[in-house]
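Please, structure for the following, as tokens.
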Amino acid sequence: MVAGTAARLLARRGHSVLALDSDLMPGLAVSLGLGGGADTACPLDGAAERGEDGRWRLKKGLGPVRAVRRYAVVAPDGVKLFQSGKLPPEGTGAIMSSLQAYYKVIHRLPRARAFADWAIIGDLPAGPRQAAFDWAPFAETFLILVEPTWQSALTARRVARVVRSRERSGAVGLVANKVADPADVGRVEELVGEAVVAAIPADERVLEAERAGAALLDHDPFSPAARAIERLVDELARWEPPARGSIRDVERA
């Protein structure tokens, strides 16, 4: 919900936005306003192949620009959604080619000049596993959502430690989520041992949107959570690196 809402808010401010979804469970497509139908098990089927040496590689001629052009789905406000796939009943083996293609593409994104001025937002699943295995090499800022509970705080500590241990570690910010009262922010800071950069309130409108299978911005753009995410986007704008060239649209790259 946070990633999808932030992506659309950035697009409304004139950014070209690429939303990356490596969570094997459904979510980001709905939060972007596409509904559950855009959550497919193997969206990159055919993009990668296995060589005689047993290693996966992108098919010849398929770089990050062509991959996004060919496989990304256009969401409301012009956001482009590029997904790794969703877990089918058969398990990850059934979507391994899609997962491998996604992983290869995102590792080439930082070197793709066509995306130099794009806002790229990735949605990772909860826990440190994907952070440890470098599933966000494009990220210059990591936001870790933390609920005011011990379990969430311990997980946040691990994720922050993993991110900061990487050679290309970016800025790390804690976001207190599902805050019921101001004391929850202090509790998150005490449990994790770090300052919170933003807080998102517990909001019944979020639950209503989820029940309806709708994006929060479409269900209630003026809800407390939506306004908190807008303030978070304002804060992120201050962390943006200097521009690295002119904007180029993926379709013309």
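Residues 1-126 form one domain. The first strand starts at residue 17 and ends at 21.
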